[in-house]
Specification:
Elements lengths: L14 E2 L2 E2 L5 H17 L3 H15 L5 E3 L1 H7 L3 E5 L10 H13 L4 E6 L3 H13 L2 E7 H6 L1 H9 L3 E5 L6 H13 L5 E3 L10 H24 L5 E5 L4 H7 L9 E9 L11 H4 L1 E5 L2 E5 L24 H8 L3 E7 H15 L5 H15 L6 E5 L7 H8 L10
Parallel strand pairs: 4-14, 5-6, 5-8, 6-7, 9-10, 9-14, 10-13
Antiparallel strand pairs: 1-2, 3-4, 11-12
Helix pairs in contact: 2-4, 4-5, 4-9, 5-7, 9-10, 13-14
The structure holds pyridoxal-5'-phosphate.
Length: 407
């Protein structure tokens, strides 16, 4: 499957409608312009495209299959299919853009990749790409997430990366972004900040979207081969929005295909700080260098956010999602902690697939769609596998599902 990279958005300043752009200090703007120019150059370079395509095939294991989840389908009354990004090397979709960013950094002569990570998935994927391509790697991670996602921390260290804890505020993803940004400012010439989703200043929302578009491009061909039709619905969870835009991008012009983005409502939408539903409950504003829907307080500062899924607790969202919300092309809804954990066990026990808690949000929404009378097909982007989550889930929810913490 070839990358096509032919999208008419964003405009040359990185705007999707009124969202996106680049709201950063002037000295950084020069660096960003340099990254943009280099990227626009290499994305047309046949050598770069074949190098990346080769790694997708032989290193990541692409194409990832689509699986018809017949047991779930029978129980819930609609045909449910899974795009198996959980089967990728390193266990999630993030390797797709990390390899692209690492190759770009290498071509630009950078020495070090740096990034923030929430669940640790982006950190592991980036540390993997750095090891493969031959770059140093610093990963910034909230102290709370370091405890919760311990296996991923060890993985990053084995891969040769340095894990740097963020110790302020809630000590989760937002604080990790702040710390990584500080680290980046110390040496933006030799480091590339490999942003972990379709967020941040231009060109990152475009670039990460392009790298993730392989998911949708593959899915479109595979689904038609399997069923002789396009899916009626596509469902993906939305943290920053990269796995969602990755699968949506190939179908944006197919207006018969309903697109569903699922945000985390955590403990509930009523209380600030208890969810991370940036599109559903947020308003347009600027943070982390770009304009988008965001959860903000009176002063326009990012609000605290929460979700049981570390990879989803981010107070803003990729700017293209804000645009797609406003034009009504994607419908965004929410799934809470309890529903996600239910779906985590449901998929594990009916299909033998343990999903990442992030991806379980998308599964939960698909089950709701099916239960509420949707009888068209539903394709879920299963963004990652749940190995990283099993200890946390059993400790906190195991007794409700008949799983003893210790035997
Ligand atoms: C990081 C992560 C997400 C959320 O990130 P997006 O950019 O919204 O895709 C979702 N699922 C998994 C498995 C992740 O690791």
């Amino acid at each position: 499957m070839k990358n096509t990279f032919t999208f008419d958005q964003p405009d040359k300043d990185g705007f999707f409608g009124e969202y996106g752009g680049s709201y950063i200090p002037e000295q950084l703007q020069e660096i960003m312009d340099d990254i943009t120019a280099s990227y626009l150059d290499i994305r047309r370079d046949p050598d770069f495209i074949s190098e990346l395509t080769d790694l997708y095939t032989h290193f990541v294991g692409r194409p990832s299959p689509i699986f018809h989840a017949k047991n779930l389908s029978a129980k819930y009354g609609a045909d449910i299919y899974l795009k198996r990004e959980d089967l990728n090397h390193t266990g999630a979709h993030k390797i797709n853009h990390c390899l692209g960013e690492a190759l770009l950094a290498k071509k630009m002569g950078k020495k070090k990749l740096i990034a923030e990570t929430g669940a640790g998935q982006h950190g592991v994927a980036l540390a993997t790409a750095a090891a493969l391509v031959g770059l140093e790697c610093d990963i910034y991670m909230g102290e709370v997430d370091i405890k919760k996602e311990h296996p991923n921390v060890v993985r990053m260290q084995i891969l040769g990366a340095t894990v740097i804890p963020a110790t302020h505020g809630r000590k989760t993803l937002k604080e990790a972004v702040d710390a990584a940004f500080e680290g980046y400012l110390k040496d933006p010439i030799n480091q590339l900040y490999a942003i972990g989703s379709v967020v941040g200043p231009h060109p990152f929302p475009m670039m990460v979207r392009d790298f993730q578009s392989i998911v949708g491009n593959e899915a479109k061909v595979q689904f038609q081969e399997m069923t002789s039709a396009l899916p009626d619905n596509i469902v993906a969870c939305v943290g920053g929005g990269s796995n969602a835009i990755g699968i949506f991008s190939a179908f944006l012009d197919d207006t018969d295909v309903k697109l569903h983005g699922v945000e985390p409502s955590g403990h509930g939408l009523e209380q600030d700080g208890e969810h991370a539903a940036s599109i559903t409950k947020g308003s347009p504003g600027v943070m982390h260098g770009f304009k988008s829907y965001m959860l903000q307080d009176q002063e326009g500062e990012p609000m605290e956010v929460y979700s049981v899924a570390s990879g989803l607790d981010y107070p803003s969202v990729g700017p293209q999602h804000s645009y797609l919300k406003d034009i009504g092309r994607v419908s965004y809804s929410t799934v809470g902690d309890a529903e996600a954990i239910d779906a985590f066990f449901e998929l594990s026990r009916l299909e033998g697939i343990i999903p990442a808690i992030e991806s379980a949000h998308a599964i939960a929404h698909a089950l709701k769609l099916a239960s509420s009378g949707e009888n068209g097909s539903i394709l879920v982007n299963l963004s990652g596998r749940g190995d990283k989550d099993i200890d946390f889930v059993v400790e906190n929810y195991g007794s409700d599902y008949g799983v003893a913490n210790t035997l």
